[in-house]
Sequence to fold (273 residues):
Amino acid sequence: MSKLVEGIKDRVVAAAREAAPAVMDAAQKAATAAAEKVAEAVADAKNVAGEASVTSEPATATEPVAAAHAPEGAIFNPENARGNLHLGIDVGSTTVKLAVLNDDNQIVYAKYQRHHTDVRACARDLFEGAATVLPTAQMTCAITGSGGLLLSQWLDLEFVQEVIASKRAVETLIPATDVAIELGGEDAKIIYFDNGIEQRMNGTCAGGTGAFIDQMATLLHTDASGLNELAANATTIYPIASRCGVFAKTDVQPLLNEGARPEDVAAPSSRPS
Fold:
């Protein structure tokens, strides 16, 4: 059974014991059931790969990774699973992202999904997905993101503030960068690197961020990619407020009610200012 899953199980039980001793037994049973479910998934994956059993011994740098099937939507590069591995979790306002890198900063495994405000359940799903393809790998771990502090406390893992995490990533991977702009789910951050470090953030409105784009896409019954595809076929540009999702909706909905083409409405909606 994956040591990662064991760690999650132990921390779930510990959190339950501290918060409500009366439900500890139920939590332990639930945690055990979840861990066993992951172990079964690992066994199935390894059997598909031609391995007879699941080993509980840590993987070494030279031990090959089982050619298990990665969860749908995940990126898995088994050829990069060598040396020391490092797992990072980013808990944002709308999604949770998990990535495993090697010492050369190459992606071994990565996946993200919407958490629908249930961060713990989403994080558990991502951990279980990673465990199916890296069942015995040992790795360092850190958590970042606007919603990551509580998760880091729950799992007793290192927390790195998201702006610091972004700064370190930019300085490591693209050191010649002067300005980095991050559009999150409900905020946007700009980091200037030219004269020291300066950071700015929009704290008043989600205009131009992921939530804004999601809202516009929902009104047009599509997703973010579909919004872009619709805009490519626009023939008329309508004036739509783009600094605020609420104002944009008050412009978009009447246009749609009056029969405006979704392609024409998508053009300004997909380019928020």
